[in-house]
Amino acid sequence: MKILRQGYAQFMFYSLLSVAVLGLAGCGGSSSNSNSNNNPTPSTADNTQAVEVNSGPANNYVNGIFTTVTICVPGSSTCQDIPNVLVDSGSEGLRLLSSAVTLQLPTITDNSSNTLQECVGFADGSYVWGPVASADVQMAGEKASSVPIQLISASATYPAPNTCVNGGTNDNTISALGANGILGIGNFQQDCGANCAATPPPTQDPYYLCSNSGCQVATVPVQYQLQNPVWMFPQNNNGVLISLPSVPDTGAPSASGSLIFGIGTQSDNAVGSAQVYTTDASGNFQSVYNGVSYSSSYIDSGSNAIYFLDATTLGISDCTNYPGWYCPGSTLSYTVTNTGLNGVSNNLTFNIADANSLLSANNGQNWAFNNLGGDSGTGQSTDYFDFGLPFFYGRKVFVGIENMTGPNGVVGPYWAY
Amino acid sequence: MKILLSLVFALLLASVPGWAVLGEYANSVTTDQQHMRAQLTETVRQGYSVKELRSADGKTIREYVSPAGLVFGVSWHSPFMPDLQQLLGSYYGRLQQAAQTQRRRRGPLVIRTKDFVLFSGGHMRSFEGAAYVPNLLPANVSAEVVR
């Protein structure tokens, strides 16, 4: 039993409401393996999870990459397959529509029956809100035990906090989210990390404890935050490899590939000739285009285009029908130099085709495009490169997790491609 | 096995006096500073000033103020999305509108109209964005300063 007691009088907008010892009711044991900083060890587990790019369960998703995740009541063989979960290298944690989950999963509560809830806003103005529950998470032959996941509320027991909602769309239905959930397998172990474990919690804390009298922001130890399930696997846990085939320049109705767990841990996930680019503490690296450096660049399978610079800076047109996507008329080629924090630097070339033409090809039934692009910002001083799903076709992209050791001693966060 | 979880509650005061918001007078930055538990830095530049609020949790909010005292631009860099309703004030509805009409895009949000410009981008642990009101830009000040 641990009692925390500290004074917070110096923080004008916070007061200590309660000091509590909290139990996770009815939940199985946690498996906090200390895997960090071990060298990858050879293993032979089935580490290959099928993924597919298609229009998704709402039949309108451009460049959405989906997989099926199996969740189980912790420590039991009572399980459910959740299909059509978006594979997102730009976030951490498994978030599932509660409407898609029939299992009764234990939620995380304190000893006053306040439930732990999370509200996460995304850059596009949408948000997800709902309780944190505990589940065993299985993919291929890998299983992570008692993983805190989020159940996105269909009809919320508690109203979502205004500070998080931001007026955007509540992504709590298949039609709004375009998926049954989001599988966040990005560069970090938790979605928030030490920031949300600090007292007082950060000013933009996504975690809340809720009761009938309302919700309050909460300090949450890292092990109860949403976890990237990959680092909780017993093996092949230092990152993932996303491997998608090439698609024609006019697009394809679908594309089948693999989400392979581990980096350099088995014969099927060797880095090979891929170059390793370490990132800053936020997961970003530098891209130089036309002599200008853009320092907040990143790779994100959950972005459905290559969002880079802006139409004015590039001197091309935005689409009329699709504001924020590029419609250059004919296909253009761009070369950018990406540089990791480790100094590794290489050119990368990609094409941008006319989004109107792409989306009307094949009677609008193509969904996988390697050359869809759009604005990242509104001016050169704030622009950056967001290498979304088009970047992934025809190459192997490795996502190295923080504090986990990869090939040749590299420690995450890093990318390799 | 029973898992013990220790959480410390923190109560955010229900009502926080108004922030300095886009398009309004910058008379409440001290309140923002207290709300964010942030360090405030003010820098006077040629034709405008910047009030920067930087908090220990990695969030930075910048408010760009014209000589007349109006906030003509705001920007944010934050591990999680900031409260844009507070930052954008009356322009908040424009964000709502764009979020609805750009649903096929899954990525950054970009609004570029004559009277309001905004982008909201980044990813979990590294969100960033900026917004400005072109009509409120001080003379001889480029919109590129809002970053």
Report the span from N to C terminus of chain A: 46 Å
Q: Give the total of domains of chain A.
A: 2
Question: Rg of chain A from C-alpha positions?
Answer: 21 Å
Total E-strand runs of chain B: 8
Query: What's the structural domain tally of chain B?
Result: 1
Q: How would you sum up the global shape of chain B?
A: globular
What oligomeric state best describes the polypeptide chains here?
Answer: heterodimer
**Poorly predicted segments of chain A:** 1-38
Most extensive interface: pair and counts? A-B, 104 and 71 residues
Major sheet of chain B: size, sense and barrel closure?
Answer: 7 strands, antiparallel
Could you give a short description of this structure?
The complex is a heterodimer of chains A (417) and B (147). Chain A is mainly beta and 417 residues long. Helices cover 5% and strands 36% of the residues of chain A.
Model description:
The complex is a heterodimer of chains A (417) and B (147). With 417 residues, chain A is mainly beta. Chain A is 5% helix and 36% strand. Chain A has two domains: 48-232, Beta Barrel (Cathepsin D, subunit A, domain 1), CATH 2.40.70.10; 265-416. Chain A is globular, with a radius of gyration of 21 Å. The termini of chain A are far apart. Chain B is an alpha+beta fold. Chain B has one domain (29-145). Chain B has three helices and eight strands; from the N terminus they run βαββββααβββ. In chain B, strands 2-3-4-5-8-7-6 form a seven-stranded antiparallel sheet, covered by helices on one side. At the A-B interface, strand 1, strand 6, helix 1 and strand 11 of A face strand 1, helix 1, helix 2, helix 3 and strand 6 of B. Strand 1 of chain A pairs antiparallel with strand 1 of chain B, so a sheet runs across the interface.
